[in-house]
Known about the structure:
The complex is a heterodimer. Chain A has a domain at 44-265. Chain A is built from 15 helices and 4 strands.
Amino acid sequence: MLYRETGQFKRNYAADQQLFPIFQDKILLAIIVTVAVGVIPFIINDYWSKAILLPFMVYAFVALGLNILVGYCGQISLGTGGFMAVGAYSSYKIVTAFPEMNLILAIVLSGGCTAAVGVLFGLPSLRIKGFYLAVATLAAQFFLIWMFNKVPWFYNYEMSQITAPPREVFGVLVSGPQASPAAQYLFVLGFLAFFTWIALNLVRGRVGRAWMSIRDMDIAAELLGIKPLKTKLLAFAVSSFYIGIGGALIFHIWLGTVEATEAFDILQSFFVLFAIIIGGLGSVLGAYLGAAFMALMPVGLKVVLVDWIGMVPVTAKHIEFILVGSLIIFFLIKEPHGLARMWQITKEKLRLWPFPY
Amino acid sequence: MKLTKTTMALAAAGVIAGAAWAETAMADYDAYTVPNLVYRTGAYAPNGIPLANGFIDYFNMLNERDGGVEGIKVNVVECETGYNTKVSVECYENLKNEGQSGALVFNPHSTGVTYALIPKASEDKIPILSMGYGRTSAADGTVFPYIFNFPTTYWSQASAFIKYVGEKEGGMDKLKGKKIALVFHNSAYGKEPIKTLETLAGTYGFELMLLPVDHPGQEQKATWLQIRRGKPDWIFMWGWGVMNQVAIKEAAAIRFPMDKFIGVWWSGSENDVAPAGPAANGYLAGTMHAPGSDFQAIADIKKHVYAKGNGAGEEARIGEVLYNRGMLEAVFTAEAMRNAIKIHGTKDIRGEHVRDGFEAIDLSEADFERLGLKDFMKPIKITCENHEGNGPVAIQQWDASAGKWNIVSEWIEPMHDVVRKLVKEDSAAYAAENNITPRKCS
């Protein structure tokens, strides 16, 4: 019904290759963009910004980065938390060393730093695969966090907890306590939209196809003339770039202060990995859906159990542990390919509604 | 079939989102909102539970006995954080406008969370009471107008420990050449005293051994091997949660004399020593208040709350160190609210009024007696400029056979000149970094 494509013809290659070829998808996207840019900035408050939208958007950003590495290139990584910390601490060093620098530039530069570190820790991927690589990247997680807690240069010889200084972008304050929720929201939204667009194009082009061929069978890919060294390291670089920017956004915009051992510990790595597994490996939409599930489900359950039903917070927390865990298992049994695949199936059904098969 | 399930899932997601929109609408009239960030789950729950119980029981007692603070009931709203900074930020944003009064004060209960909330709460004009933890330099009220960390801070406590050691060794000049080990939680919290201790090591000529322990602190074999090799004369510990009891057990295993092992006041509760059994006998810890349940206020809690079946925890555990500390937080909060009502002459108070109430806290021996807490702690006075209050520190000792803590020292006055100088330096750096103009205090 909704997704019936009858009458939508492609007359040239450009039309055939556009990002959203189906008319209904364009309408959906237009509605989302209108709400995101035209409605939310005017009604957003502190709670919606700090507790719901910013966590969702930064985790979507980080999940997008990890999905490039794990979902598209097939290189399992457990070092996400460590790379997020690299982004946060390098952006802290950059903004405190060059107070005049534009925050956007500083954050992109910190993404660059993280990309370099990611390539370094991606080197073992040329020799080892699968679980063995997961363990090697786990070493990155532990080493990086240890380093940011141990070496005082990274936190300017203060306490190991770093605090984001207030910074303006084009005359509007976006970091620090006085920043308005709307400015912070739009700042992160801008990053997310731009880099999602980049990722969408990257994964369907030459580079993305090379990643996927390495993922599906590296020996065959090599025979086809794809260089594993270049391709794998590029995946590590791009993925870490995204993750580093995500870490910098968590630090500057969402939390305003982080401590490496607490904010970017091993649980963060698992959190993002779960997000992409539940959302759907090898799918940009999956990163969004997975981040929404992992970041917003606990908040939603809390609202329902504590504020509506009036449960004691600690009991609600225990029930939340049980429910979130069960929901993860439920989703993975019902749809091992994640929420993104579920959405795809829904679309197929809607195409043939009311008589899907 | 599959379609219906998907639709249901989508509908459920929509309902949850709608719920979040609606939640701010609930208003609780005729009551003051006092939120409390608690952790009854997670790695630090054994310590978080008694803290939270003491806090809520005291306010429930006030509600039952006096009808609240100055006749207005107090609604303590707990938010479960699991000692997680990100969840705590969500809790803070969720609760700051709760009820008619809005949040009147926040107790973050974690140094990391305190750091995260300091800039935001100052902007929202809600005071933060980080009682004996958090950012030490927040003791400078000119730079941190909304942050309170009285009765004393980590830095003051470290200097008091050095004074205690000096006294036991027979004079401050005897400290020269002594070796003191600091076993600390490897986080911003655990690192707090290092600067002060290093400064004092320079002054008195003792040697400082720094031994970090990573979260959560179950694995300390290497640390205690280093202690056996380094043979320190004294050990200080800045630990929290399971780290404390593991350290005490390890110290017992290497037969380190317990009366030369001093924990910070977060390393000195029943949870920390009981698992080590008789071996923990004689272990020392700093404290800011007396242990035990021998106080009128606690008798009132038992009578008005527990006898009616409304207690938050087990009655047998009332009077434990962390329970009393939670209660003390509630006492200070209630007194600040009372002061705020008096100063502003209205019962319609908000967070910024309670801030003024905190700055007017001036509790004498007689005031503590009026509160039913005779000899619970020393008099305390907060000013606009000094949010630390310069309270003294006592040393308590664990008596394993009796199963209770006893205060064994005089109330030690910290080295205010040393600490105040470090506080001023650090707060000035913070002010410069964040474009804050310190306010005038006279």
